[in-house]
TrEMBL record:
This is STAS/SEC14 domain-containing protein. It comes from Jejudonia soesokkakensis. It holds the Pfam family SpoIIAA-like. InterPro entries: SpoIIAA-like, SpoIIAA-like_sf, STAS_dom_sf.
Length: 117
């Protein structure tokens, strides 16, 4: 489950909670693709808002999506206290043409300022 919000015309954010499975990831990707219909490149803000679990197919699906559309992201902010997600983000950054930055939950405002600037 997730909630989405917009920072600016080309920046979208998601608060993600609950169980992250393929269905949840597909829904998130549909919203991102809708934004990409209007802009060549977008900024993406992803915040862990009490995620309970991830499924392996969801993680693979997300990675494949970023590989396919990685050149369409200008900035990605990942906000979580889970160090393994930060590590995954750092690895994914290799495949993106934009910049991915990891932030702890306590740095939420810093992440929002960075993604919207």
């Amino acid at each position: 489950m997730h909630s989405s919000f917009t920072f600016s015309k080309d920046t979208v954010g998601f608060l993600i909670d609950g169980n992250v499975n393929e269905k949840a990831i597909n829904k998130l990707q549909i919203e991102i693709l809708e934004k990409l219909k209007s802009f060549d490149k977008i900024n993406l803000y992803l915040e862990d808002s009490n995620i309970e679990s991830f499924t392996l197919p969801a993680i693979v699906n997300q990675l494949m999506f970023k590989l396919e559309h990685g050149d369409r992201f200008r900035k990605i902010a990942i906000v979580t206290d889970r160090k393994w997600i930060h590590m995954c983000g750092s690895i994914e950054n290799i495949f993106l043409s934009g910049t991915l930055k990891n932030f702890d939950i306590s740095e939420r405002l810093k992440a929002m300022n960075w993604i919207s600037s």
